[in-house]
Amino acid sequence: MAKRVVQINEKLPLIESIPLSFQHLFAMFGASVLVPMLFKINPATVLLLNGFGTLLFIFLTKGKVPSFLGSSFAYLSPAFVVMASKGFQAAQAGFVVSGLLLVLVGMIIKYAGSEWIDVVFPPAAMGSIVAIIGLELAPTAASMAGLISEGGKPLDTKYLIVSISTLAIVVIGSVIFKGFLGIIPILVGVVSGYIIALLVGIVNFDVIKEAAWFALPTFTAPVWDISAILTILPATLVVVAEHIGHLIVTGNIVEKDFIKDPGLHRTMAGDGLSTAISGLVGSVPTTTYGENIGVLAITKVFSVWVIGGAAVISIIIAFVGKLAAAITTIPDPVMGGVSLLLFGTIAASGIRMLVDQKVDYSKPKNLVLTAVVMIIGLSGTHIQIGTVTLAGMALATVVSIIISILFKIFEVTGLMNE
Predict the structure, then answer these.
(1) In CA terms, which of 25, 115, 298, 325 is 20 to 30 Å from 211?
(2) What Å distances lie between residue 104 and 108, 119, 149, 264, 285, CA to CA?
(3) How far is CA 404 from CA 123, 124, 223, 374, in A?
(4) Which residues pair with 301 in a beta bridge?
């Protein structure tokens, strides 16, 4: 018997809505909390702003798009570059400007239409860029997991036990868990890995003991630095491509054209405004979440009221001090083990975009575009422009835009050999 479809504007009884809301929250919890842990900032702040950003997104899209905004992975690499010399607050400034740029893109789409996006971000480029987000972060995951020797030191056996066990639990859970557990294998992996880390003695409880039961999240103001802003800004182009891809996939699941109604300009502006506000107060950029799109596909519950409920729960959890403290005590090998799969999943989602869009690699333009984007993004190539460094997926995105526009010119002038 087919599952009953719960439509976008449909309200469910509270006794049903609460567990369904928790389901969405847990789906993004492991991935979304991972980003602040990588940045070494308070996860409570991120949970608060993710919840607020989701409610803002729902409001701006007139309650027509069932999307949860979680922590974006697209900004990790450029943010790490900035943080290495200038700190997280300088990266915040980049997040704010990037968010405002997304709002501007939304306004351009409103008045100029969205046809130009197909020229700037053809499927062969869009899928490759998303794949690079995960692939270029692979060394970070391996290092956290204790799989890479630093300075010739022998690998830490305890770290290996924890990271490999955590990865194994997430991998096995992803393919054999059913029902509610089938939606939260990442959370199950994190909890299991934490318990294993306790058993091998690499967890420090001092932070939890000192934390209050109820506490305000930590807020920090951005430090305005032009070179930091320019380093992070190219990631905006990646988010544009990622956002469009997610919106199309969600629309296919729900069987609605969100690009037309409520309009790509509204969804883009909602994502951008949420990112800008997050950067202003010390949180991380937000984005629509693939994990939550998966929940929609599995449950057939499309209610935006359920998504809103998950956002409210996220905000409430942000003020539980001991819980936020407990999150910060999760050891690196636990999150490293999870990240090995998670970053790979991001890469795979990029490949899936290529498959779903039926990219024809018998055409030279598609083959060349994907090949150049992947090599530029993963080769370590970088360009220094003053104090700004373009590397990884940011450089690959800029190169892909240039090539895509050039190919379009060839096509219009009849020079293309196909």
Answers:
(1) 25
(2) 6, 18, 44, 12, 16
(3) 10, 10, 35, 14
(4) 6
* Residue 148 contacts residue 340 (beta carbons within 8 Å): no
Residue 320 lies in a domain: yes
Name the range with the highest mean pLDDT among 97-101, 149-153, 182-186, 307-311.
Answer: 97-101
Torsion of CA 83, 89, 92, 93, to 10 degrees: -100
Please state the pTM of the whole predicted model. Answer: 0.72
Place of tokens 């090539």: 403
Report the SS3 class of residue 31: helix
- Provide the domain count of the chain: 1
pLDDT tens profile 236-250: 877 887 787 777 767
Nearest Cα neighbor of 232 from 83, 405, 53, 377 is 83
CA-closest candidate to residue 125, choices 21, 222, 203, 240: 240
Rounded distance between C-alpha atoms, residue 218 and residue 196, angstroms? 29
Asked whether the predicted pLDDT for residue 124 surpasses 90, the reply is no
Predicted local confidence at residue 116, as pLDDT? 77
SS3 71: strand
> Does a structural domain hold residue 246?
yes
Residue 224 pLDDT grade (very low, low, confident, very high; cuts 50, 70, 90) = very high
Q: What is the per-residue pLDDT across 228-284, written as a single tens digit (0 to 9) for each? A: 898 888 888 778 877 877 777 677 777 788 888 888 889 999 999 999 999 999 999
Q: Extract the tokens encoding 392.
A: 């990884």
Residue 115 has pLDDT above 80, yes or no: no
Tokens of 227: 């070179």
Q: What is the pLDDT of residues 77-93, one digit of tens each?
A: 788 888 988 899 999 99
Residue 130 Cα distances to 5, 41, 388, angstroms? 30, 25, 22
Domain range for 255: 20-359
Classify residue 3: in a domain, yes or no: no
Residue 322 maps to a domain: yes
φ, ψ at 382 (rounded to 5°): -145, 155
**DSSP label of 382:** E
